[in-house]
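so my prof wants the structure for this chain in the tokens format not the other one, which i didnt know existed until like an hour ago. anyway here's the sequence
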Amino acid sequence: MREVGSILKNCEFPFYTGLGAFFCTAAAMVTLWKGLSAGMLIPVLFCILLWWLLLRSCNQRDRLLKLCVSSGFFFLFCTPICILISIYGYRTPEGIQDGPILFFFLILCTKIGDIGAYVFGTLSSVLMKGGNHKAVPSVSPGKSYEGCAGGLICTIVLCYLLWPHCGLELYDRWISLPLGIVLYFGGAIGDLAESSFKRTCKVKDSGHTLPGIGGILDLVDSLMINSMIFWIFLKHVLHMTLE
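here's what i got, hopefully its the right format
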């Protein structure tokens, strides 16, 4: 949340950075301790506070803008973070803690798409006469259709191979194929959305926490959408009891 505030500041958008960081951290900690339903009480409290601040924003356009920006970005990032933690904390009805391995499965199947897209995109750029075909040059000049195809294949294959080793052996293995497709595109959209956000605010990296990568947001951007997709998949397709 502090990185989000820093990016918005560069674009001269007002943002309650301290409040956003505090409530997002509190929501994450409560979710880790008591589960998702308890963790979601923190955003509710934040929403109550925002309504109180809205009451005090009479004839103050700057405060109203700050409220709108802060609330939008808080819920945009806090929700997937809490869902990620909820997946990590999952236990089977028998008390077996399958959450960490499901969490690891999600990270691997998301990041392999990034890696595959980079490798296939780089190779196609070198091997193809005239270079590869750019997918969205206005948002991310490095993305190519050839890279997207390679990343998609890598994600589907890895999902299929890891499926029986992640506590999912009781479910039909072929379900992993459409899951791999959705996870690849979800990760790609998350990555491109963050790139679009940074480009709009004229920022290259979200921070300098991770040398060679950028900020924490640069590392987890592709997981933002995929966390929610995977949660919906586990809860409503596989009918797991996620708390």
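also thought this was worth mentioning. Residues 187 and 223 are 6 Å apart (CA to CA).
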